[in-house]
Amino acid sequence: MIQHESADASDPLLVADTLCKNYGRIAACRDISFSLYRGEVLAIVGESGSGKTTLLQLLSAQLAPSAGRVSYRMRDGIMRDLASLGEAERRFLFRTDWGYVHQDPAMGLRMAVSAGANVGERLMAVGWNNYRDIRNTACSWLERVEIDVDRIDDAPRTYSGGMRQRLQLARNLVTEPRLVFMDEPTGGLDVSVQARLLDLLRNLVNQLQLAAIVVTHDLAVARLLSHRIMVMKGGRVIESGLTDQVLDDPREPYTQLLVSSILPV
Amino acid sequence: MTAMIELRDAEKTFTMHLQGGVELPVVRGVSFQVGAGECVVLSGPSGAGKSSILKMIYGNYRCDAGHIGIHHHGVKVDLATAEPRQVLKLRRDTIGYVSQFLRAVPRVAAIDVVAEPLIANGAARPFAREQAAWLLRCLNIPQRLWTLPPSTFSGGEQQRVNIARGFISELPILLLDEPTASLDAVNRAVVVDLIDEKKRAGVAMLAIVHDDEIRAAIADRVVDVTTFAASA
To answer: Which residues of chain A make contact with B108, given a CB cutoff of 8 A?
Structure first.
């Protein structure tokens, strides 16, 4: 398996430096700076249109910033500006060291090929070529995400929404990425299915010492999963800090409104 | 005696933006210390700011001014100005918090809820589960409940699971927020024993308790929070 470079844990994994993104006259992201460390889970919260998804796309090199930059510590320990990476290098990052969990699993999976192939494909992309090894690893990942191994040869279009989302996780995590981006990972799922996925995610993040950047509008998801939180409004980060501190002692008017808008169960 | 917690002129005010920006001063000039192996109890009526002080020391509430010195791996760290990452490190290695209410995680069995802090700190799972079982037994949680998620338990049972989770770790500082609030006499006595044991192990504890009998049983010193009143 791929060996992780034992970079000093006190070195940041990803650094955003005064990131801006304009769409014409509209500023979708303004002056966003932060550092993310190994094993750290950062939640980005805010209502629709606040710039969360644009920020996630900037951070994952799917969009080029209008100004500012994103640097990432590669497995060799060297910090690289994402904009300076060639297309092949960027693709390699996406296949190995990064995961991207879409809200809609159909965006992150190939719906017509088997579950096993969905998981195995990421391994083949990094040079695995022994069929038995690939299948065994795919099986063990299906088990880890609580999918019955009997379903390995079925295509995800025959899966329920919750199963698809868990399969998407397995596909992303099989190459042991160090950083996973998640866009509303529990959006669109039933509450009971959400709880199971959240619990699974929380355990995997702990076991694998994953760093993650999770975009969510659900503060309960942020509380359960994240160490740190950034609150966005109008393209800016208006408040950030330790998750329970921001949620228990919100300082900004908008954050106070968000926190007080949670419906009690 | 080493001061494990040392507050100097700590201050807390809430600004309620949804109520037209009303300022609610809670406490000001909070200064006291807690040494290793002692239990200090905060006293004062409801609303005096006892919980706010505890939450500032744990970092759930921001401290608006002053210092909150925490003895962490032999070095004093000011929690009032610490980075989130540092606060998390302090919580993992140094400060534990036992609240009244369990924030139940769906699907996790009671015994694993209790064992989790030990495992997170690197203990082997069988050992952590053994310790968890011992604490659950001490706190009279029937064994048939151990493998069930505590979200379905009664209030008192959830609180005891939470106490077990708080006491399982070997952290040098424990903050106790009404740990005995809804417990019966038998279980209150168990908690008093657990606190005594922690004292002997040199743990510094800061507690809020409303029950006079418990206070008398655990307090080495009492700090009167009304002397830190911020309003008028």
So the answer is: 199
DSSP string, A167-206: HHHHHHHTT--SEEEEESTTTTS-HHHHHHHHHHHHHHHH
Give the list of residues 6+ apart from residue A130 with CB closer than 8 angstroms, or none: none
Single-letter residue type at A210: L
Nearest residue, CB atoms, A253 vs list B17, B88, B120: B17
CA distance A158 to A155: 6
Give residue for tokens 């393209």: A235
Alpha helices by DSSP H, listed for chain B, are 50-58, 84-93, 110-120, 125-138, 155-168, 185-200, 212-218
Q: Is the per-residue pLDDT at A14 higher than 80?
A: yes
Residue B38 has pLDDT above 50, yes or no: yes
Distances (CA, A) of A252 to A72, A230, A249, A264, B224: 30, 12, 10, 21, 31
| pLDDT tens-digit map of A79-115 | 999 999 999 999 889 888 999 999 999 999 999 999 9
Closest-CA residue to A16 (of A26, A31, A38): A31
Contact partners, residue B95, CB within 8 Å, separation at least 6: B57, B58, B70, B171, B173, B174, B175
Residue tagged 């079925």 (tokens): A154
Mean pLDDT of chain A: 91
Alpha helices in B12-109 (DSSP H): 50-58, 84-93
What is the total residue count of chain B?
232
Q: Would the CB atoms of A195 and B16 count as touching at under 8 Å?
A: no
| Exposure b/e, A244-255, CB count within 10 A at least 16 = b | bbbbbbbbebbb
**Predicted model pTM:** 0.90
In three-state secondary structure terms, A118 is helix
Q: For tokens 């005096």, what's the residue?
A: B48
How large is the ipTM? 0.88
Q: Strands A179-183 and A67-73, how do they pair?
A: unpaired
A194 with A186: CB under 8 angstroms? Answer: yes
Spell out which residues of chain A touch residue B120, defining contact as CB-CB under 8 Å. 206
CA distance B20 to chain A (A): 10
> Distance of alpha carbon A165 from its chain centroid, rounded?
13
Q: Which residue has the tokens 């700090």?
A: B223
Q: Over the Cα atoms of chain A, what is R_g? A: 18
| C-alpha separations of B105 from A221, B113, B148 in Å | 11, 8, 12
Q: Share the mean pLDDT of chain B.
A: 92
CA distances B232 to B45, B65, B223, Å, are: 17, 18, 20
Task: Look up residue B144 and give its DSSP letter.
Answer: G
Residue-wise pLDDT for A158-203, tens only, equals: 999 999 999 999 999 999 999 999 999 988 788 878 888 888 888 8
Look up tokens 């409940």; give the residue.
Answer: B145
